[in-house]
Design goal:
Elements lengths: L1 H18 L3 H4 L17 E5 L6 E6 L7 E5 L2 E3 L3 E5 L4 E11 L2 E4 L3 E5 L10 H7 L5 E6 L12 E4 L30 E5 L5 E10 L2 E14 L4 E5 L22 E6 L3 E7 L2 H4 L5 E8 H6 L16 H6 L3 E6 L5 E4 L12 H5 L8 H5 L2 E6 L4 E7 L6 E7 L4 E4 L4 E8 L3 E7 L5 E9 L5 E9 L6 E8 L9 H10 L3 E6 L5 E5 L8 E3 L12 H7 L3 E5 L3 E5 L5 E9 L8 E6 L38 E10 L5 E9 L13 E9 L1
Antiparallel strand pairs: 1-2, 2-5, 3-4, 3-6, 6-7, 6-8, 9-11, 9-17, 10-17, 11-12, 12-13, 13-14, 14-15, 15-16, 16-17, 18-20, 18-28, 19-28, 20-21, 21-22, 22-23, 23-26, 24-25, 26-27, 27-28, 29-32, 29-38, 30-31, 30-38, 32-33, 33-34, 34-35, 35-36, 36-37, 37-38
Length: 667
């Protein structure tokens, strides 16, 4: 040991000498230290307080040129001197290290013993808030957003570039209940106890297929009331199992930041690790409430605001006797705030359909309506009509909050649109059979001509609203061809190319063109086996569609032709939508095809078969437009064009039921 002390003294001399050198020398770093030198009594000391042995003083003896790295029962520290306040008797461990020019170096952990219990250290209100006090235990569960506390769910985010400390932080995003993706986590519990020690038991519940599974952990904990940190030993903070990778094990257990701790509310911040999560470091703020609070909490009644409307509600809907309301064809539905302010302001059929998610069907909208007949000041009878359904009759009442309560639950589809996925919009009452009059509109004489009925959402502070007009019902002119053109051009200009190496397959019609389906395996073959020349020819084809109706076509010989196009809505008679071309007709003597290897895979317009197919164009080439493909943002990313197979007969007298279907994507 004497030799080791002498060696260490020599190292310190050299360290001092190095620190007295010029700036260039100090940039080289200090002398390295080995783990064998980082032992108590030489590089650091562990000293109990003379009057209170539950206070332990840790001190580095290496001088200011070394940054200490402490791992203690109360967390990490880089201070030269550290004071531990350990309330419970037991065996504790300290590991000491330093930063060197070669990185962090740690010595072996060193154990020391505390013989007595010090109640003074756990009498702080934070210990009581967390555990219920000495001899007690306290159970914590996730905040589900319904307990009257600030966060709206189990976890929120805080920006690490801002202050995130005890009592001084704000969320940059509070996504609400269920953001972590597993509803079964809400059965999890975390129990802190001061009965015979600082113990913690954690049960993480989670989904395992269709079953609910449990992951149990138990260990000890240390609460640092001065620095507001929480450290676990042999376990980790309660968190969804699917979030294990968000940080390291130490990140879930050591020096966790306590942001809030009251009798019923606990918020703990964990820093996301990029090494394990693949995402940038960010504070994940975990929100817990005491189980006692959760079990007994009854939210205070906070009625929704009652929007102002024009006149008496019952008079509005009945004009004292009978009034018929038909759903507005221009703006049949929307969403609204609790105050009745519309959130999307839809205006016209196109505004719904161009959203790529809001269904619109004029026939279904026009068939939806109410007839109200008053038999008193607060109620009467109603008839509810909807598309494809028998009328529903019953009785209603109306109150001072403008809530219409029906004698039964009402539900009907008011629009359906296929956007590549089926969007379906319904009119429904609430679970207690109510709709609220949120908004009205009057004419110049003060007569109410429009009203918006709202169905209160259960999960959000908003309404789905339905717009009705007196005497409405005339079917509007929906320009389906314009909607398709806007989609094809993106509202301005879009260029399409053949999707390689999956350019085409065969489509089949059962009876007529409207029953198209890709087959036989609903998959596009991989044509990488083409000759290189054929592949290059196919890759030359381009369509550029412009919203002014002009089009540029480049064939698979690279020849560019300009012309115009027109979209014919499939409902106009042919059965599928058609893109008709003018000015870029191709004669049979000059087919748009590659005649080398793979040349039978030709791309041509359907021009010779128009007279043989009912309602098909006869004055220009055209392509069948089967379906659309959308990107994650809802914009068009591709489409399918169909070419009729004619069995090699130029006059089309031997038309086949199958189609050659080319897949085009945005260039």
């Amino acid at each position: 040991m004497k030799k080791l002390l002498n060696l260490f003294s020599l190292i310190l001399v050299f360290a001092i000498a190095f620190t007295s050198c010029n700036d260039d020398d100090t940039k080289l770093g200090i002398i390295d230290i080995t783990p064998e030198e980082l032992v108590p009594g030489i590089s650091y000391t562990i000293t109990p307080d003379a009057s209170n042995p539950n206070i332990i003083y840790l001190e580095s003896k290496l001088g200011p040129q070394y940054t200490p790295l402490w791992e203690t029962p109360q967390g990490r520290s880089q201070k030269e001197k550290v004071t531990l306040k350990l309330p419970f008797n037991g065996v504790y461990s300290v590991q000491f290290g330093v930063m060197t020019r070669g990185g962090a170096v740690y010595g072996e952990p060193h154990n020391f013993t505390v013989d007595d219990f010090c109640a003074d250290f756990v009498n702080d209100e934070l210990w009581t808030f967390l555990t219920g006090g000495v001899g007690n235990s306290k159970v914590w569960v996730y905040n589900n957003g319904n307990y009257g506390l600030d966060a709206t769910g189990e976890m929120a985010y805080a920006d690490p570039s801002t202050t995130v400390e005890w009592g001084n932080f704000s969320y940059n995003w509070d996504p609400g209940k269920g953001w972590t993706g597993d509803s079964n986590i809400f059965g999890s519990t975390m129990t802190f106890s001061l009965d015979g020690g600082a113990n913690v038991d954690i049960i993480n519940t989670y989904s395992d297929g269709d079953a609910v599974a449990e992951k149990k952990e138990n260990g000890t904990f240390m609460l640092d009331v001065d620095n507001h940190t929480l450290t676990f030993n042999d376990c980790t903070l309660m968190h969804p199992v699917a979030y294990d990778h968000m940080t390291t094990t130490a990140g879930w257990s050591k020096d966790l930041k306590i942001l809030t701790l009251t009798e019923n509310y606990l918020q703990v911040a964990v820093l996301r690790s990029k090494d394990t999560s693949g995402e940038d470091p960010w504070w994940l703020v975990w929100n817990f409430v005491s189980k006692e609070w959760a079990d007994s909490y009854v939210p205070a009644e906070q009625p929704d605001p009652v929007p102002n409307i024009d006149g008496d509600a019952n008079d509005i809907i009945t004009t004292t006797r009978t009034k018929t309301w038909t759903m507005s064809l221009n703006s049949p539905y929307d969403w609204a705030t609790l105050e009745g302010d519309l959130m999307n302001n839809f205006d016209g059929a196109d505004s719904y359909l161009n959203s790529w998610w809001a269904a619109y069907d004029a026939n279904m909208v026009a068939a939806t309506g109410f007839t109200f007949t008053a038999n008193g000041s607060t109620g009467g009878k109603y008839t509810f009509s909807s598309y494809g359904n028998d009328d529903i009759e019953g009785e209603y009442t109306i109150d001072a909050n403008n809530d219409i309560t029906f004698d039964q639950y009402l539900s009907a589809v008011i629009s359906e649109t296929d956007f590549g996925w089926l969007s379906s919009m319904k009119l429904t009452t609430t679970a207690d059979n109510k709709l609220r009059i949120l908004k009205t509109k009057t004419d110049v004489l003060g007569n109410v001509t429009d009203m918006w009925l709202g169905c209160r959402a259960e999960e959000k502070a908003e309404y789905m609203v339905y717009h009705f007009e007196v005497g409405a019902g005339a079917t509007p002119q929906v320009d389906a061809a314009k909607i398709l053109k806007d989609r094809l051009t993106g509202g301005s200009s879009l260029t399409y190319k053949v999707d390689l190496p999956y350019p085409f397959c065969w489509g089949y019609n059962v009876g007529d063109a409207s029953s198209f389906s890709i087959g036989p395996n609903d998959a596009f073959p991989d044509w990488t086996g083409w000759s290189e020349a054929a592949y290059q020819y196919a890759d030359k084809i381009r369509f550029t569609f412009n919203n002014d109706g002009s089009v540029t076509f480049i064939d698979n010989n690279g020849v560019s032709t300009e012309g115009t196009f027109q979209i014919i809505d499939g409902d106009a008679g042919y059965g599928v939508d058609i893109v008709k071309f003018n000015g870029i007709l191709v004669s049979e003597s000059e087919p748009i095809t590659y005649t080398g290897p793979g040349g039978w895979v030709n791309f041509n317009f359907n021009e010779n078969y128009s007279g043989l197919l009912a309602n098909a164009p006869t004055d220009a080439g055209w392509l069948e437009l089967y379906s659309w493909e959308y990107g994650s943002d809802g914009s068009v990313s591709g489409l399918w064009f169909g070419i009729i197979q004619a069995g090699g007969v130029q006059d089309g007298s031997n038309l086949k039921a199958e189609r050659r279907v080319f897949h085009f994507v945005i260039d």
